[in-house]
Amino acid sequence: MSQKAAFTEKRFLLTFVFVTSLFMLWGIAHSMSDVLNKHFQNVLNVSKAQSGLIQLSVFGAYFIMSIPAGIFMKRFGYKTGVLLGLSLFAAGTFLFVPAANANSFTFFRVALFILGCGMATLETVAHPFAAALGDQRTSDRRVNFAQSFNAVGAIVGPAIATYFLLRVTASSGHTLDSVKSLYAGLGCFIVAVAIMFFFVKVPALTDPHVVTEVKDTDAVNVDTEPGKKLYQHSHFVWAAIAQFFNVAAQAGTWSYFINYGHEKMGFSDEKAGNFMVLFMAMMAIGRFVGTYLMKFIAPNKILAAFAFCSIIACIIVAQSWGWVSYVTLFSINFFFSIMFPTIFSLGLKNLGSHTQQASSFISMGVVGGAVMPYFMGMVANHDVAQAYYLPIICYVVIFLFGSRFYKVHH
């Protein structure tokens, strides 16, 4: 990487700070839903497989909303796309109040679906937005850095949700009042962020997605084969596939973390939920470490190495070797850390005017998270440790992408 390639430019700093904050917001919401998973098992008496439908509601929204979000972004721009995402996000959180009043798991899934539509819109917009705020050669580092704060949000989410949900359930019995207050508060915060972002003036971008006459195609996102349709760019197709399996592995691993602590380690739900804070901290550490390493090592090589380590970790976790397996479960989140943003940024390389459409399709890959929790839940109903064999399939696909299929053909 050239020393001339700056991380970003001074004129983009305020915008980049706000875009980075969005990554933290949906990190909080995603990880809260994993605690919600266990809370609904306790309060609404749903099975592990049924509670996995929470992730189906959230990630299914990605499948439906990502393409419309990409079209909206291309028509109205990044900033308006962010405001649409925040509006849907807030609407979904406020719907938790009538859902709790109705004591209805189905109503909660509707609220989660709308919340998911907001997160899908934000992810579709925020990744190319962060990538566009500077030189393409440093886009991997920018997206990974922004995603580091997504990991910070993933630490905050379980801490808040465990305090408001699992602690309350343990002390005051089965109630949904805490769910109402928690999500209404989150909704108010999102509205505040939206109002602030509305008044931020985004500098005019020399849009790298429409530049065609640039000599250094490593620095600027230019389609090196403009005659090709999007689906003919093999590195993009593989990125979309890898992202599907990546988020499938993430959602499944996160969904049953608390169950693993409770059933295999003998912890209370609250104690297992508190361990989830440390679990998410491992992802934040991994993102910052990974972002630093990318100054010296090609991102695809780090991706392949972390995927291989994840395969070994899943095998150990599935053995139920007490603390050895439990500590290894924490390492999965460290290795998972750089996968989502790195797959995303590698998939967007040299697509030129196809970039925003490509972002929509890679975001759609997040629907993988709707699939794995249900199947892992079916196995977890018998043995939660054995369920961790399933993500190995996902990490094999990611390893292949990082080691071979990431290449941009010139």
TrEMBL record:
<feature type="transmembrane region" description="Helical">
    <location>
        <begin position="181"/>
        <end position="200"/>
    </location>
</feature>
<keyword id="KW-0472">Membrane</keyword>
<keyword id="KW-1003">Cell membrane</keyword>
<feature type="transmembrane region" description="Helical">
    <location>
        <begin position="52"/>
        <end position="73"/>
    </location>
</feature>
<feature type="transmembrane region" description="Helical">
    <location>
        <begin position="106"/>
        <end position="133"/>
    </location>
</feature>
<feature type="transmembrane region" description="Helical">
    <location>
        <begin position="145"/>
        <end position="166"/>
    </location>
</feature>
<keyword id="KW-0812">Transmembrane</keyword>
<dbReference type="GO" id="GO:0005886">
    <property type="term" value="C:plasma membrane"/>
</dbReference>
<dbReference type="InterPro" id="IPR050375">
    <property type="entry name" value="MFS_TsgA-like"/>
</dbReference>
<protein>
    <submittedName>
        <fullName>MFS transporter</fullName>
    </submittedName>
</protein>
<keyword id="KW-1133">Transmembrane helix</keyword>
<feature type="transmembrane region" description="Helical">
    <location>
        <begin position="388"/>
        <end position="406"/>
    </location>
</feature>
<dbReference type="InterPro" id="IPR011701">
    <property type="entry name" value="MFS"/>
</dbReference>
<feature type="transmembrane region" description="Helical">
    <location>
        <begin position="272"/>
        <end position="290"/>
    </location>
</feature>
<feature type="transmembrane region" description="Helical">
    <location>
        <begin position="80"/>
        <end position="100"/>
    </location>
</feature>
<dbReference type="GO" id="GO:0022857">
    <property type="term" value="F:transmembrane transporter activity"/>
</dbReference>
<feature type="transmembrane region" description="Helical">
    <location>
        <begin position="236"/>
        <end position="257"/>
    </location>
</feature>
<feature type="transmembrane region" description="Helical">
    <location>
        <begin position="302"/>
        <end position="321"/>
    </location>
</feature>
<dbReference type="Pfam" id="PF07690">
    <property type="entry name" value="MFS_1"/>
</dbReference>
<feature type="transmembrane region" description="Helical">
    <location>
        <begin position="327"/>
        <end position="346"/>
    </location>
</feature>
<feature type="transmembrane region" description="Helical">
    <location>
        <begin position="12"/>
        <end position="32"/>
    </location>
</feature>
<feature type="transmembrane region" description="Helical">
    <location>
        <begin position="358"/>
        <end position="376"/>
    </location>
</feature>
<dbReference type="InterPro" id="IPR036259">
    <property type="entry name" value="MFS_trans_sf"/>
</dbReference>
